[in-house]
Amino acid sequence: MTLDFEWYDETIQRTIGFRKAAYEDVELVHRWMKEEHVHPFWNLNISLDRFKTHFRKALADAHQTLYLGTIDGEVMSYWEAYWVKGDIIENYYPAQVWDQGVHLLIGEKKFLGSGYALPLLRAMVRFQFQQASTARVVAEPDIRNEKMIHVFKKCGFRSISPVTLPDKEGLLMFCEREDFEARWNNEPRETGV
């Protein structure tokens, strides 16, 4: 499996990786969308046929890249890294050209409640900041998802304001590069990918 980004996280003593999702991953991601801890926040608990159409469209959307996240090589999470320009969220604040956003879910239940969410998010934000022009990563988690809002805050995101999106009431959150690097700059460097 070829990874687009890999990071050894000292806090969990495991290697986190991300690889681009492909259409062949559709059944796995669909299974995750049906999980009880996922579907209230993603609203994609739909038939496989409908999800295949959704996933194909998402893969073809040039303003975002879909990833599967791994821990020690095991696929266990789904990510959408996107450019704010071209996304609906750009209408909710004065977006900069290189702002990126992130959506995520941990699909495999055995990875829940084990302290992996923060290291995973931290690795993805670090990956997004590899784009030198990006100074801000944006999130808009469902306002009811207190656990993820807490994880975003621990990672370095700050709450901006509630936002009413077409599919949810979200909380707009920003993670500025300067704040992120000040918080996490003493971590070991990226492994050789």
Automatic annotation (TrEMBL):
InterPro entries: Acyl_CoA_acyltransferase, Acyltransferase_MbtK/IucB-like, GNAT_dom. Transmembrane segments: none annotated. Keywords: Antibiotic resistance, Transferase. GO terms for molecular function: N-acyltransferase activity. Pathway: Siderophore biosynthesis. It comes from the Bacteria. GO terms for biological process: response to antibiotic; siderophore biosynthetic process. Residues 16-178 form the N-acetyltransferase domain. Acyltransferase required for the direct transfer of medium- to long-chain fatty acyl moieties from a carrier protein (MbtL) on to the epsilon-amino group of lysine residue in the mycobactin core. PANTHER family: LYSINE N-ACYLTRANSFERASE C17G9.06C-RELATED (PTHR31438). This is Lysine N-acyltransferase MbtK. It comes from Halobacillus alkaliphilus.
